[in-house]
Amino acid sequence: MEKLLMGPGPSNLTESVRSALAQPALGHLDPEFLSILDETCDLLRWIFKTDNKMTFPVSATASGGMEAVVMNLVDSTSKVVIGSNGAFSLRAKAMMERQGAEIVEVNFDWGSPVDLNELNLKIDFAKPDLIWMVHGETSTGVLNNIVNIDKGDALLIVDCVTSLGGVNFEMDNWGIDVAVSGSQKCLNVPPGLSPVSFSTRAIERFKASRSWYFDLQMINDYISTAGPRTYHHTAPINMIYALKASLNDIKEHGLDETFNRHKIAAEYLYSALGEMGLKPAVESPFRLPQLTTIFIPKELQGIESQIRKDLMDKFNIEIGAGLGIFAGKVWRVGLMGANATIRNVDTLVNALGKLL
Ligand SMILES: Cc1ncc(COP(=O)(O)O)c(C=O)c1O
């Protein structure tokens, strides 16, 4: 029986994604495959809301996409301001520190959003080359505001791994120079692809890549229709089919309807939790609909892992444990992509109700 994946990702695959994965493979230089790849990149431009030419899926999980960004844009001369309020801003910081970059971390409590007034003051003072923000912080369930960042001359890099496809994201209108996402959250594709997009400003500031595999210019020589499309690495053919199928499905339903479905399912979850005496860890205006962190009552904290295990063993439902300083204190419930339904909330709440 299929498990219901209501953790922080991966989410369940849709029927069309599964059937795309099962299609016959093609060669990675076969014109038939290249046109599928081109359509997939067009669909990524559509969901990122960008005209950026350099928009494609990196053949790696989202951490690989982050690393690709770092290897091509960050070195020991870089100064980076990070709005930090969870595990994934810490991951970006760790990656950039390894490249010797100077990091100005602007810290906020886990479960609270990045305050843009404070961030903008720091940016004005530090005059960084780069600003790194996490849009949907999966470790805490906070949706950070990334509109109205006074980036000055800096490039704005946004981790939209969990936000893309679940809440509005407007790369060009919001002045985002680099976006990095992942396939396994609201896109319902297996983990292993990291959609990325780069503005012209960002490309102009690429450094000599310190990674061969993540050399974005070399990858782009294969992806871009402008040149001879030379081999760099073998594209993960069937994963590209899956991504294309997923994006087509989302397009068919429309983004507004998709975002609304996430919002409705999340609000239904908050109210059902309230009836059970459980409380989301994030204040209502800052909640990320596709990932809810729930405070575990003190008396249950000692047995919280047993409750998650029972949910899995008895009901086939996965929810996530807390990460970092939230470990043992919160559960993380994902309503990602096609999983964001009232029915799934009912299934989880009924099971949890029986266990508690
Ligand atoms: C916000 C965010 N950024 C980055 C990552 C890293 O993604 P991956 O585990 O696919 O490498 C995750 C994964 O959960 C995430 O939630």
Secondary structure topology:
Blueprint: E1 4-5, H1 15-21, H2 31-48, E2 54-58, H3 62-73, E3 79-84, H4 87-98, E4 102-107, H5 116-126, E5 130-134, E6 136-137, E7 142-143, E8 155-159, E9 178-180, E10 194-198, H6 200-204, H7 216-223, H8 237-253, H9 255-275, E11 279-280, E12 291-295, H10 298-301, H11 304-315, E13 317-318, E14 320-321, E15 330-334, H12 342-355
Parallel strand pairs: 1-13, 3-4, 3-5, 5-8, 8-9
Antiparallel strand pairs: 2-10, 6-7, 9-10, 11-12, 12-15, 14-15
Helix pairs in contact: 1-8, 2-8, 9-12
The protein binds pyridoxal-5'-phosphate (PLP).
Describe this entry's structure for a reader.
The protein has 356 residues and is of the alpha/beta class. The chain folds into two domains: 4-9 and 254-355, Aspartate Aminotransferase, domain 1 (Alpha-Beta Complex), CATH 3.90.1150.10; 15-252, Type I PLP-dependent aspartate aminotransferase-like (Major domain) (Aspartate Aminotransferase, domain 2). Helices cover 40% and strands 16% of the residues. The chain has twelve helices and 15 strands. The chain has helices at 15-21, 31-48, 62-73, 87-98, 116-126, 200-204, 216-223, 237-253, 255-275, 298-301, 304-315, 342-355, and strands at residues 4-5, 54-58, 79-84, 102-107, 130-134, 136-137, 142-143, 155-159, 178-180, 194-198, 279-280, 291-295, 317-318, 320-321, 330-334. The strands form four sheets. A seven-stranded mixed sheet has the order 2-10-9-8-5-3-4, sandwiched between helices. It has a four-stranded antiparallel sheet with strand order 11-12-15-14, covered by helices on one side. A two-stranded parallel sheet has the order 1-13. A hairpin with an 8-residue loop joins strand 14 (320-321) and strand 15. The protein is globular and about 60 Å long.
